[in-house]
Design a protein that fits this description.
ClpP/crotonase-like_dom_sf; binds octanoyl-coenzyme A; about 15% strand; 2-enoyl-CoA Hydratase, Chain A, domain 1; EC 4.2.1.17; lyase; enoyl-CoA hydratase activity; 12 helices; fatty acid metabolism
Length: about 260
């Protein structure tokens, strides 16, 4: 598999995807979107891959949608063309995906990181939704996912002023799961992904589904959904193996059955 804007490396059961448009700080143009959707579609059905790490360069995870590409579009172009709707496929990816962020994660870059299941960032990471400075608003979930992640006050602050927040602020307000030194970013993200890929993929898929549901429905409905999936796991061999391994004081060997 070879792509113009992406690099792919496999480490054990982890696929590491690197956004690779250094000349534009990894700005997300339509080629990036098409290629990323294509690649994730292939990884979705690849049984050898249990989890994905999505990263960028040291300077930029992604500095947003490609402003030069969309600059000359008018309302009819973007409305009839349903601009950016292809990115929804990324949020629909069913395997765990970790964003490993260094440098700028702005606009669509911040939104792409938020579509991932969690974010590990370096101390140099900077997050923001600067669309207001361009005369537009976030268009790929920034007003919704950011608000759910950090609450109204911070989301309003970032979206209305266009300011960036650093990794420390992003971690303290809940946008980022872990902050690490630059040289440990990929190591830490791959280790987390490898750990996840070693668990029962049935249970892993259900964690992703249930936690994601928490953002979409009431607590009562979410709890009921969680309980039903929890019950259903008792029909799997992996539940028998996981619990037997605990009792027998050994490491579980999951078969994803
Ligand atoms: N689009 C296109 N090109 C970009 C972008 C971008 N978003 N960001 C940077 N570049 C290009 C620059 O034009 C420059 O190219 P050139 O050398 O040809 O002039 C090159 O990358 C390097 O950038 P800078 O020289 O500006 O680098 P600096 O270190 O001086 O500044 C910044 C870095 C602060 C990140 C600055 O580049 C910047 O402000 N970039 C734009 C950030 C922004 O406004 N992002 C939001 C874009 S709108 C958006 O994302 C809408 C989301 C809707 C959905 C998205 C779906 C994907």
């Amino acid at each position: 598999m070879s792509y113009e804007t992406l690099l792919l490396e496999t480490r054990g059961r982890v696929a590491v995807i690197t956004l690779n448009r250094p000349q534009a700080l990894n700005a997300l143009n339509s080629t990036v979107m098409t290629e990323l959707c294509d690649l994730l579609g292939k990884l979705q059905t690849d049984a050898a891959i249990g989890a994905v790490v999505l990263t960028g360069s040291e300077k930029a995870f992604a500095a947003g949608a490609d402003i030069k590409e969309m600059q000359s579009l008018d309302f009819v172009d973007v409305y009839l063309g349903n601009l950016f709707s292809g990115w929804d496929d990324i949020a629909g990816f069913r395997k765990p995906i970790i964003a490993a962020v260094s440098g700028f994660a702005l606009g669509g870059g911040c939104e792409l990181a938020m579509m991932c299941d969690f974010i590990i960032a370096t101390k140099t990471a900077k997050f923001g939704q600067p669309e207001i400075t361009l005369g537009v608003i976030p268009g790929m979930g920034g007003t919704q996912r950011l608000t759910r992640a950090v609450g109204k006050a911070k989301a309003m602050d970032l979206c209305l002023t266009g300011r960036m927040m650093d990794a420390h602020e992003a971690e303290s307000c809940g946008l980022v799961a872990r902050v690490v030194d630059q040289e440990r970013l990929l190591e830490e993200a791959v280790a987390a992904a490898e750990k996840i890929a070693g668990f029962s993929q049935v249970a892993v898929g259900m964690v992703k589904e249930t936690v994601s549901r928490a953002f979409e429905q009431t607590l009562t409905e979410g709890l009921r959904f969680e309980r039903r999936l929890f019950h259903s796991l008792f029909s799997t061999e992996d539940q028998k193996e996981g619990m037997a391994a605990f009792v027998e004081k050994r490491k579980a060997v999951f078969k994803n059955r």
